[in-house]
Each structure stands twice: as structure tokens, then as C-alpha cells.
Design a protein that fits this description.
single chain; alpha/beta; 6-stranded parallel beta sheet; 8 helices; 15 strands; 24% strand; globular
Length: 335
């Protein structure tokens, strides 16, 4: 690839995609930064040594070898559709769409056009997460397995477009954001036959900021607790009759195992030093998928099962019991 557009000039483009992309393309390549906020695009271009900017991807599609979509969630599907129609390979930030229908249409369009469509499900590239997959596949913990996934911190992502949640997302928030990573991992570990058994969140019509989801598979039971409001344990615990595995979300290279007798061992894996060091792996998979005309690690078809689970959650949405929001109005006194 020689000419690649990055569409959306927010934090993820700045810290994750651009350092890896400029290094991969080298002096002979060209990056185009696209954002309706021209000032933001120019500032990011100056910071990364990029010479070309534009307000719309439609202004630069001619001659593109690929595009990275890093814009707000609700824009992913329409922008990806436009690029695929023009024959441009796409690497899109998660979620690929805000509904199952959007993702299915993109899958079918990319297949019909013969265009690569990849989704940045970064956690599939984390060595510790891959090791969890191997542990489960080998039956090392025995079956059935129960999973407790607790994840969250106070929301402080420096979003360039805060309105990406709320009304523009159809009242969808935490589940479509962090949940897209979590549910995708669950599908990659346990398969696409998972079903939703329970879902609650704290939404009063806007974006949810705290949630609980229960999932069930043929040989697993999964409880997921996510929050944007306070720091959680940020740990996944897998328990089977033959032992327990623990993975901390921020541990790229470490999985802890405990046998039924309580003896613990730690597995350390070769790993990037920081989360942003995963970007070259994501980018290399995308470039290779285009060059070799193969499926990327996370294509539209691969993320559909997790998208279906999230949509099923929203369809059965109920609110947490929030007693501090419940009060009784006393009837006014007469006389």
C-alpha cells in the first residue's frame, strides 16, 4: 500500500493508528488525514509529518490503496459503504456498525465487490487473550467453565466528538463501546452459539454507563459486569473442575493458573510492551489480508455473532434496581 486515508482525527488515530501507519508506509508512502474539522486534521498532520488533509473521504477516494475508519460509531457503516463501493479496502474501528443489519449489509457488499473489510478488534492480538483461548480449547480447566468478567474505569477517553454517544448512537453506549471488545472475545473463545440469558443496565433513555449481561453456551456460563462510572477489578476469571485461570485486562503477557489444590503458576508470554504496540500487528494483518486476498483476523463475518449478542441484549433491556431514583409523591393536603 502506498496511499492510505485515516478518516477521523481523534485520540485513537493520534495514539494508535498513525504511528504504526507512518512507520509501515515509510518515506515512499502517503497518508491522508480526513476530518470535517479542518483545524484538527491540520494539527494532527503537523504532529505526524503528514502533508495532505481533507474534509471528506469522498474528496480523496481516487487513488486510495486503503482506508482506516476512526470516526464516531454512527458514521462507520455509511463511510465504509462508500469506500467499499469505490473498491477501497477498509480497516474500521469497532463497532463496525450500530446494528446487525448494518454489519450484514457491509459483509455482503464487501463479498460482492471482492474488497477486504477488517475490524480493529485489538484484543484478538493480545498474547494473554490468545493464551486463554488455547487453555480453553485444550480443556485444561475441564468443562463446564464459569466466567466472571469485570471491567471498567471512570470514563476519561479524550474523545474529539463527545456526542458520539447519546442520541446519535440511538441511546447505545457502554455495551457498544467496551462491550464490543468483551463480547467479541467471548465469541472467539466459546464460539458463536452463545445466547443472552439476562441483561440490565442503568439507561433512562440515553446511553448506558453500567451494565450486567449473562450469557450461556453449551459448556459455559458467563457473567459480564462493565462500568464507565467507577474502577472495577478489570479481571476475567475462568473456573472449571480442573482449575482456574485469571487474566487482568491490562496484562498483555500474563495469565495466572490455579489448580484445585490452590497452587498457583504464572505463564508469561512474549508480548508488546504497551497496548499501542499492538497497532503494527493489526495493520500488518490488514495489509496482508489485502495482498493475499484472505480473510483478516476480524472481518465482518467474524464480528457478526458478537453484534447479534449485543443487539439481543438491547432487545431485552431492563433497568437496574436503582432505589435512590425511586420516591413516592404524597398527596397534597386539603384544607
Amino acid at each position: 500500500m502506498k496511499r492510505v486515508a485515516v478518516i477521523g482525527c481523534g485520540a485513537i488515530a493520534d495514539s494508535f493508528h498513525l504511528p504504526a501507519l507512518t512507520a509501515a508506509l515509510g518515506a515512499s508512502g502517503q497518508v491522508v488525514l480526513v476530518d470535517p474539522d479542518e483545524g484538527r486534521a491540520r494539527a494532527l498532520a503537523a504532529a505526524h509529518g503528514v502533508s495532505e488533509t481533507a474534509r471528506s473521504h469522498e474528496d480523496v477516494m481516487a487513488g486510495l490503496d486503503g482506508a482506516i475508519i476512526a470516526s464516531p460509531h454512527h458514521t462507520h457503516a455509511p463511510i465504509a459503504t462508500s469506500l467499499i463501493e469505490a473498491g477501497v479496502p477498509v480497516l474500521c474501528e469497532k463497532p463496525l456498525g450500530t446494528t446487525v443489519d448494518e454489519v450484514e449489509k457491509l459483509r455482503d457488499l464487501a463479498a460482492a465487490k471482492g474488497v477486504t473489510l477488517a475490524v480493529n478488534q485489538t484484543r484478538r492480538f493480545i498474547p494473554a487473550a490468545q493464551e486463554i483461548g488455547r487453555i480453553l480449547a485444550s480443556g485444561e480447566l475441564g468443562w463446564p467453565v464459569t466466567v466472571k468478567a469485570n471491567e471498567g474505569d471512570k470514563f476519561d477517553w479524550p474523545a474529539a466528538t463527545p456526542s458520539m454517544f447519546g442520541a446519535r448512537s440511538g441511546g447505545r453506549g457502554l455495551l457498544l463501546d467496551i462491550g464490543a471488545h468483551v463480547f467479541d472475545l467471548m465469541v472467539s473463545w466459546f464460539g458463536s452459539e452463545l445466547e443472552v440469558t439476562e441483561y440490565q443496565d442503568d439507561s433512562f433513555g440515553g446511553s448506558e454507563a453500567s451494565l450486567f449481561a449473562g450469557l450461556q453456551g453449551a459448556r459455559c456460563t458467563i457473567d459480564i459486569r462493565l462500568s464507565w462510572l467507577a474502577k472495577q477489578r478489570n479481571e476475567y476469571v475462568f473456573t472449571g473442575p480442573e482449575g482456574t485461570a485469571r487474566w487482568g485486562v491490562y496484562d498483555l503477557d500474563t495469565v495466572t493458573l490455579e489448580d484445585p489444590g490452590g497452587r498457583r503458576t504464572t505463564r508469561r508470554l512474549p508480548s508488546p510492551r504497551a497496548y499501542t504496540d499492538l497497532a503494527p500487528l493489526v495493520l500488518d494483518d490488514f495489509f496482508s489480508a489485502v495482498a493475499e486476498q484472505r480473510d483478516p483476523v476480524a472481518g465482518a463475518g467474524a464480528v457478526l455473532p458478537s453484534m447479534r449478542l449485543m443487539e439481543a441484549c438491547y432487545e431485552r433491556r431492563s433497568r437496574f434496581d436503582l432505589p435512590w431514583h425511586t420516591f413516592r409523591m404524597e398527596a397534597p393536603r386539603v384544607g
